[in-house]
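Recall that a protein's primary structure is simply its ordered list of amino acids. Everything else, from secondary elements to tertiary packing, is in principle encoded there. The following example makes that idea concrete.
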Amino acid sequence: MRRHTTTWLQGWLKSLTDTQGGTNYGEKYTQDPVTGFVTKVSDSADAVKVTYGPRLDGRSLTSTIGPSSLGIELSTPHSLLGEPLARTESSGVTVQSYYDELSRVVQDGSSSQRRVSSYDPSGRMVRSGDE
């Protein structure tokens, strides 16, 4: 049997509980006390899944890939326009992204391998390949 519970505090969502077979698959939410924006999402065992920075657009700064027990974290800084500039895994691998004036990805990749993209005048991608 599956059971769902939602917890609210002062109008803010605090947790979702999704229990099935005695296991809780829910999430807990932490908000900024001033703005009310979500700053952190944790699983039912308090392992952090996603952290959000003080951005009005709500972009995530870090997220956990796969089960939290693996501890694989992904950091994603964004430009002022909200474009992801890079993705850095906890292993140290960084994939950087570069954009043109229309916010289209023109190049992305790590130091050892890059992918380059080009577009036709109507904005359609016409080529994307390794450099």
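The two ends are 53 Å apart (CA to CA). The mean pLDDT is 79.
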